[in-house]
Amino acid sequence: MYKEAKDFIELMYDELGKDKQEMTRRLEQIYAEIQKTGTYWHTSEELTYGAKVAWRNSNRCIGRAHWNGLNVVDARDITNESTFIHSIEDHIVQATNNGKIKPYITIYHSDHPPRIYNNQLIRYAGYDDCGDPMEREVTQLAEHLGWQGPHTDFDVLPLIYQMPGDKVKYHDYPSEIIKEVPITHPHYPKLQDLNLRWYAVPIISSMDLKIGGITYPSAPFNGWYMVTEIGVRNFTDSYRYNLLEQVARAFELDDLKNTSFNKDRPLIELNYAVYHSFRAHGVSMVDHLTAAKQFETFERNEHKRERDVTGKWSWLAPPLSPTLTRNYHHGYSNEMRDPNFHYKKKSHSGCPIHSS
Ligand code: ARG
User: Which domain of life is it from (predicted)?
Assistant: First the structure.
């Protein structure tokens, strides 16, 4: 742990141009604390900078140009249940910011945090016959705890959590804090009949944040959506909402054989609809071409500071017109650097009922 702490502290003092003597004193302090307690406590400056660098190092993320603008909430002292729920709802409200989305992270205690069972704080339930198939396991857990949704395609799941030493519980959010956008297309009124909608803010709550050898298992974080995440992946992936055929029909494209190119055509218009619906409702969203441009700026800024950019090509190339972006045309090293966000090992993230 000390080795990882030292790497991080050196990086931070170096990048922020901080006093090297102070750094030596801080390292001695951390060393002694680890000797005595087996761990150490980040200062709020370390926590804040560590979370920002974790975003900067997230190889799958195309939005990293904004890494230094992350708002970090230190919630390490929260042990009370209602304070915890309030802090989660406050994250949702502050990050939503009436539609002008702000990147936020709320970080709970590293060793005995409230546990969050949701993949994202806001997500739609998945049932055998409707909803988001990706969320079936979480939905079953919610139902096992006594939750019952109205059984539509877009039931907002409750928060599923566990305070240290307590049992797993659920909490329904007040509906007025969950901003959602109905999807319409100005030139194809039939799209409206599908009653598609999506929530405004993607807040990932299933990853570990690791800074300087310390793992924070509960640290929900968000940016804003890139249009294709919803318009290509969530709506049309065959193992998600699988809506390609229905959307094509709404656009009067009935012949879906490969050589009619009518599988490709609706994707463009659906993404146009998602983007303009979000904007019409005053909700931040970035299109894939602008996001890729911003990523180029990020790469340039990093190179100026003599840092090289790691990345996962298959995630950085957007799933719509990828060849129109520069990052399609070159490779990236997918080396993982800490601070970073890590997927949980399955045994820690699975359903508490069905895992044995
Ligand atoms: N792809 C995920 C979703 O569709 C969200 C991942 C995070 N995305 C983001 N723009 N910060 O819900």
Answer: Bacteria
User: Which residues are part of the catalytic machinery?
Assistant: 61, 64, 224, 229
The SS3 of residue 107 is: strand
* Alpha-carbon span 73 to 47, nearest angstrom: 9
> Token pair for residue 300?
């340039």
Gap between the Cα atoms of 278 and 198, Å rounded: 9
What confidence category does residue 345 fall into, taking pLDDT thresholds of 50, 70 and 90?
Answer: confident
49-104 pLDDT tens trace: 999 999 999 999 999 999 999 999 999 999 999 999 999 999 999 999 999 999 99
**Residue 16 DSSP one-character state:** T
Query: What phi and psi, each to the nearest 5 degrees, are found at residue 9?
Result: -60, -40
| Cβ–ligand 1 contact at 319 (below 6 Å) | no
Rounded CA separation 67/1 (Å): 25
113 lines ligand 1 (CB under 6 A): no
Q: Is the dihedral of CA 75, 78, 9, 209 positive or negative?
A: negative
b/e burial code for range 180-213 (CB count within 10 A of at least 16 → b): bbebbbeebeebeebebebbbbbbbbbbbbbbbb
Report the nearest atom of ligand 1 relative to the CA of 234. Answer: 4
Instruction: Give residues with Cβ within 8 angstroms of 182, minimum separation 6.
Output: 192, 195, 196, 197, 277, 281
193: which 2 tokens? 């009949």
User: Which of 229, 240, 278, 283 to probe ligand 1 with, by most ligand atoms within 8 A of CB?
Assistant: 229
Tell which residue, 38, 20, 171, 201, has the closest CA to residue 104: 201
Q: Helices in 16-72 by DSSP H: which ranges?
A: 20-37, 44-56
DSSP annotation of 174:
P
Q: Which residues pair with 350 in a beta bridge?
A: none
Predicted TM-score (pTM) of the model is: 0.97
Query: Measured between alpha carbons, how far is 276 from 274 in angstroms, rounded to an integer?
Result: 6
Q: What is the rounded distance in angstroms from the CA atom of residue 105 to the CA atom of residue 341? A: 12
